[in-house]
Amino acid sequence: MNQALDLNKIREKITELDQQLLTLFAERRALTLNVAKSKAQQVRPVRDQQREQELLISLINKGKALGLDAHYVTCIFQTIIEDSVLNQQAYLQTLANPNMQEPTVSVAFLGAKGSYSYLASHRYFSRRAEKIIEHGCQSFYDIMQQVESGMVDYGMLPIENTSSGSINEVYDILQHTNLSIVGEITQPIEHCLLTAVNSQLSKIRTIYAHGQPFAQCSNFLDKQKNIRIEYCESTADAMAKVYQLQDDSVAVIGSEEGGSLYQLHALEKSIANQVENHSRFILVARKPIDVAEQIPAKTTLIIATGHKPGALVECLMVLKNKGINMCKLESRPIQGRPWEEMFYIDVEANLKHLALQEAITEITEQTHFIKILGCYPIEHISPTNVPSSALADA
């Protein structure tokens, strides 16, 4: 009895400390907003990675004196730094685009609640809007139509995955739209095998899945015997189907977070081919946005070159000579023109910068077709590096 009482007191103390931590986190986050306001006035970059590194090393050393593991301290404060950077970027973007800031936004995405596109949409707008009006769609084409027609403000589209590669259907649709890319977000993809009722892997006979998760979990699925795969339009549709069936012989591939919205439970976790599995999503809208100069930006363009030898290389050399980093190159066939290709290029540069403007002018002279799909903030925040010596010494 005494042990139970002691445990309750310990838990009460932990709860009290957790509340204090939340209060301090909120206070710290509020201060980062003041940092963003100062940087807006002085036009200074959002990130100062040298200061971030010095801060982390100092915190690691102070944590050591308190008996805290260096990796534990690093993990916590890398997350805090990432949150600070993203909040500062969101604030600076509100200044650059005052007419686009609304308390309520409407977003079209693939599937229904629980899909990875649904999760990416909510994660992206968690810093930007108080309320999201959800519009689940059955295809990528439907998403684009919803935005183009003005029925919704934005469309969330998966563009590539670290495991299964580029999503070609989305690239092909982008050839024929007047929409602009206004944002991006990288969503962790943590595939699980989910069931609606308690079951065992040996009992599973049917797995419902969207094509992308199926491809990304092929190694796990190849090991299973006597299992039939049923393809669905989206992961959300697959989860809804499994929930409706309430059958211990059926399962679905999806995220544990999304599955919880359908009262599904993880029978097997981490079943993707790659442990580090992420999908990059792009956000499209009817009008382009301005990107604040303090924010790292990415610009996406499409070009069609001639058939002469080295035509593409000449265009890429323009970027190299201007000191512009190309971070993505994707080729897709041009519909109705056999053996001709369209090239999608992502560069890490703001469309406002003179170097990129000059590069686009030169590339235009060397191509049959060029189109700017959008300039938008880089959402992926690389973790602040800590020297291995600092981790070892700590």
TrEMBL record:
Residues 1-92 form the Chorismate mutase domain. The keyword Transmembrane helix does not apply. Its EC number is 4.2.1.51, 5.4.99.5. GO terms for biological process: chorismate metabolic process; L-phenylalanine biosynthetic process. Residues 300-377 form the ACT domain. Its main location: cytoplasm. The keyword Isomerase applies. Pathway: Metabolic intermediate biosynthesis; prephenate biosynthesis; prephenate from chorismate: step 1/1; Amino-acid biosynthesis; L-phenylalanine biosynthesis; phenylpyruvate from prephenate: step 1/1. Substrate binds at R11, R28, K39, D48, E52, S84, Q88. One of its GO terms (cellular component) is cytoplasm. Residues 106-286 form the Prephenate dehydratase domain. InterPro entries: ACT-like_dom_sf, ACT_dom, Chor_mutase/pphenate_deHydtase, Chorismate_II_sf, CM_dom_sf, CM_II_prokaryot, CM_P_1, Preph_deHydtase. It is found in: Cytoplasm. Catalyzes the Claisen rearrangement of chorismate to prephenate and the decarboxylation/dehydration of prephenate to phenylpyruvate. PANTHER family: PREPHENATE DEHYDRATASE P PROTEIN, PREPHENATE DEHYDRATASE-RELATED. This is Bifunctional chorismate mutase/prephenate dehydratase. The lineage of its organism: Bacteria, Pseudomonadati, Pseudomonadota, Gammaproteobacteria, Alteromonadales.
